[in-house]
Specification:
Translation Initiation Factor IF3; about 25% strand; 4-stranded mixed sheet; single chain; about 90 residues; alpha+beta; globular
């Protein structure tokens, strides 16, 4: 999916006043398996750290705009491309 098309993607996960709970992270993981890309929105009065949500869900953070973030399923790296692999 190209970056220009993220705007057309509808949010499938809404983070409420409780913030990003473990149940919410599990739902993000479940949707990433089936959809590959997930758009998440949150309320104005909710503090959200997009990078920590991506790390908790094991996803790549593609874009953050306002109160919206886009996550993609993390691609598995091939053993030869990992710089720590000697």
């Amino acid at each position: 999916m190209r970056k220009e098309s993220f705007q057309d993607l509808k949010p499938t996960i809404w983070i409420g006043k409780r913030g990003a709970t473990s149940v919410m992270i599990d739902e993000i993981r479940r949707q990433l398996k089936s959809r590959k890309i997930v758009k998440v929105r949150w309320l104005r009065n909710t503090e959200v750290d997009p990078e920590s949500i991506a790390a908790s869900a094991g996803a790549d953070l593609l874009e953050v705009r306002g109160r919206t973030l886009v996550l993609a399923e993390r691609r598995s790296r091939s053993p030869g491309r990992d710089s720590r692999n000697i």
